[in-house]
Amino acid sequence: MNTTNKIKVAIVDDSALIRSVMTEIVNSQPDMEVAGVAPDPLVARELIKRTNPDVLTLDVEMPKMDGLDFLERLMRLRPMPVLMVSSLTERGSEITMRALELGAVDFVTKPKISIQSGMREYTELITDKIRAAARARIRPRSLHAPGAGTGTGTAMPVLRAPLNSSEKLIIIGASTGGTEAIREFLMQMPSDCPGILIAQHMPEGFTSSFARRLDSLCKISVCESQGNERVLPGHAYIAPGHSHLLLTRSGANYMTRIEQSEPVNRHRPSVDVLFRSAAQAAGKNAVGVILTGMGKDGAQGMLEMKGAGAYNFAQDEASCVVFGMPREAIAIGAAHEIAPLQALPGLVLGHLATHGGRALRV
């Protein structure tokens, strides 16, 4: 970070109003300051050269040069933490998903200027994300291409026969950097893997795009959970951005449930809510996985899973974009194993191959 110990933030947005609001938000924080603003990527290029910012906030849709084109060039030539600022539209969410693949650390939606009552909450959200981005590890560009970085150098354990949904389940939680970590994990899952439930911190309107993108890349089926679904092998269910996702039982079957109760750890969906439901509904039949993310959401829920007999994995510090959630889970003894992201799919499948309750072939 720079010698003033303040996080220097460059703001790139074609809206003068948004630039003004973002400047006011950043400069209101004692630990950060605006290094400069730019209305488009061409001006931003010179701004970055001149000010060497710690974090760049980048509008996903701008004139003169597409935000994605600029991001791709930036991550290739001058990798740095980038926080995307996205509109709440289907196009905005699709572009944002692609930006995360290209190496953006995280994203926020554009502030609703007309709703002043929500500005304090928005200010907390975006400044927390800027702080996380400033500490983030920027991974090499090659690891962000779909299909890249998914090999572990060893053969994946192969499931000989599908596991029934009344047997093993994989329960995943993530936040900052999690979209790409989840993609990398799921792309290694075989079509007959146990059912997977996922809580990723993400706003409403973006989880459906995220699920569609994963579904197009993976061997398994991936969907945004609608609730009341039977959890099936070879399927992954992502918590919708507006609700908590819970695991329940109906007779011998596992089922999904979504509910719009209060946020937990400031999040809805919350990883703690999902993990706690897995502890109660699945117990020793669950395998927990906590991935990159800021904060502590998921740590206590994972500890409850461990207490109920589940076996848990945490992503290691070196492979995390932000080593927050895994660190908290590790600190309280919730994780049985700690491993790099690239190794986690093989370790999870290996554990299932030896503890799955059916004949499995490695």
Summarize the structure.
The protein has 362 residues and is an alpha/beta fold. The chain is 34% helix and 20% strand.
Say how many strands there are. Answer: 14
Radius of gyration: 20 Å
| Largest sheet: spatial strand order | 8-9-7-6-12-13-14
Order of helices and strands: EHEHEHEHEHEHEHEEEEHEHEHEH
Continuous helix count? 11
How many domains?
2
CATH class of the largest domain: Alpha Beta
- Sum up the overall morphology in one term: elongated
Low-confidence stretches: 142-154, 160-166, 357-362
Write down the CATH topology of the largest domain: Rossmann fold
What is the helix fraction of residues, given as a range? Answer: 25-40%
Distance between the termini: 46 Å
- Main sheet specs: 7 strands, parallel
Class computed from helices, strands and strand pairing: alpha/beta
CATH architectural label of the largest domain: 3-Layer(aba) Sandwich
Q: At the fourth CATH level, what is the homologous superfamily of the largest domain?
A: Methylesterase CheB, C-terminal domain
Q: What is the arithmetic mean of pLDDT?
A: 89
How would you describe what is shown here?
Its main location: cytoplasm. Belongs to the CheB family. Residues 163-355 form the CheB-type methylesterase domain. Keywords: Chemotaxis, Cytoplasm, Hydrolase, Phosphoprotein. The chain has 362 residues and is an alpha/beta fold. The protein folds into two domains: 7-144, Rossmann fold (3-Layer(aba) Sandwich), CATH 3.40.50.2300; 169-355, Rossmann fold (3-Layer(aba) Sandwich). The protein has eleven helices and 14 strands. The chain has helices at residues 16-27, 41-51, 67-77, 90-102, 119-135, 178-186, 207-217, 271-281, 299-307, 325-331, 344-355, and strands spanning 7-12, 32-38, 55-59, 82-86, 106-109, 169-174, 195-200, 221-224, 235-238, 244-250, 253-259, 286-290, 311-315, 337-339. A seven-stranded parallel sheet has the order 8-9-7-6-12-13-14, sandwiched between helices. It has a five-stranded parallel sheet with strand order 2-1-3-4-5, with helices on both faces. The longest helix is centred in the middle third of the chain and has 17 residues, at 119-135.
